[in-house]
Specification:
The complex is a heterodimer of chains A (111) and B (199). Chain A is mainly α. Chain A has two domains: 52 residues, no CATH class; 59 residues. Chain A is built from four helices and no strands. Chain A is elongated, with a radius of gyration of 32 Å. Chain B is built from nine helices and no strands. Chain B has 199 residues and is mainly α. Chain B has a domain of 102 residues: Rna Polymerase Sigma Factor, Chain: A, CATH 1.10.1740.10. Classes of the chains: A mainly alpha (111), B mainly alpha (199). At the A-B interface, α1 and α2 of A face α2, α3, α6, α7 and α9 of B.
């Protein structure tokens, strides 16, 4: 006589096999027609549903990272200028730094 | 019945999925039909593995709506098929979450496959093979009705479909440890359900 454990294991094997043999139905053309109708309806009523980024998302995904990168670069140059440069080098770094500040000011005004 | 909608004709069958996606994002909605040509069977198969037969069309419909709405998030850095499969599996998971919220009776009582009861199923498990499998399918559905949506989804992937924990985690958007824990607990629970019925 088989133990309960054996029975469960046999049963589990049957379950896996039964699942493996599941066949998917063919989706009928009527299903497809309704789906495309719904998608056209969505496209008409909610163009943002197409994945076109709304302005807030564009700001979050593109402007903010760019502004952060520019700010970080300006900070790095500032520290470099204060720590390592002398004479002409310092003047060049200051020039670059002033450009970054201008860039940041421009970004801020846009934002 | 043939579709009355115009079909996008300016793509070749060899076109990369991403080209089609970009075309849809650019406003050519009919190009979505090409994605349907390529992937509706796959989505139907995934849905059938997770939800009962009578809900496959409804779930597949919902999945394709989500795919359409998410096209803007497709980065193209990995195969479209994988990206789409993730949405499909999550769609099935969400089906069960909604279903469990709405249901009053156990899931095992729905539809024509779920009737019977474990006693009847077990009484003839040792008979002819095909019949055993059909009955096992009923039993599977009955037993899974006692699992949570998360448990049944993760168990379907790892135990029935044979996905690794890492693959299942990728499909569900979960961490690997979460998949392992949930899968382990669900397996124990399933065994208890089966044992109670047997003993």
């Amino acid at each position: 006589m088989r133990s309960a454990r054996d029975l469960i294991e046999k049963l589990e094997d049957d379950l896996v096999e039964a699942h493996r043999r599941l066949e998917a139905p063919d989706l009928p053309s009527e299903w497809r027609r309704r789906l495309m109708q719904d998608i056209h309806l969505l496209a008409e009523t909610d163009p943002s549903g197409l994945g076109i980024m709304p302005e807030a998302l564009v700001f979050r995904k593109m402007v903010l990272p760019f502004a952060a990168a520019a700010g970080l670069a300006a900070l790095t140059l500032f520290i470099f200028e204060r720590t390592f440069t002398t004479g002409l080098d310092r003047q060049l770094v200051r020039l670059a730094l002033s450009d970054f500040v201008s860039l940041l000011q421009l970004l801020t005004s846009v934002i | 019945m043939e579709s009355s909608l115009p079909i996008a004709r300016d793509h070749s069958p060899e076109d990369d999925d991403q080209v089609i996606v970009l075309d849809i994002l650019g406003g050519n909605i009919d190009a979505f039909e090409l994605l349907l040509d390529r992937y509706q069977d796959l989505v139907a198969r995934i849905a059938r593995k997770h939800v009962p037969w009578e809900h496959v069309q409804e779930v597949a419909h919902e999945i394709f709506i989500r795919i359409y709405q998410s096209l803007g998030n497709y980065k193209g850095n990995r195969p479209f098929k994988h990206w789409l499969s993730k949405i499909a599996v999550r769609g099935c998971y969400d089906f069960w979450r909604d279903y469990y919220k709405r249901r009053e009776a156990p899931v095992s009582s729905i539809g024509d496959e779920g009737g019977g009861g474990a006693e009847n199923i077990f009484s003839s498990l040792s008979q002819e093979n095909d019949r055993e499998l059909l009955e096992a399918r009923d039993l599977l559905r009955w037993a899974f009705g006692y699992l949570s949506p998360a448990s049944r989804t993760v168990l379907t992937l790892t135990y029935l479909e044979g996905y690794s924990a890492t693959e299942a985690a990728g499909l569900l958007g979960w961490s690997v440890p979460r998949v392992k824990i949930q899968s382990y607990r669900a397996r124990i629970k399933l065994r208890k359900i089966l044992a109670k019925t047997l003993l």
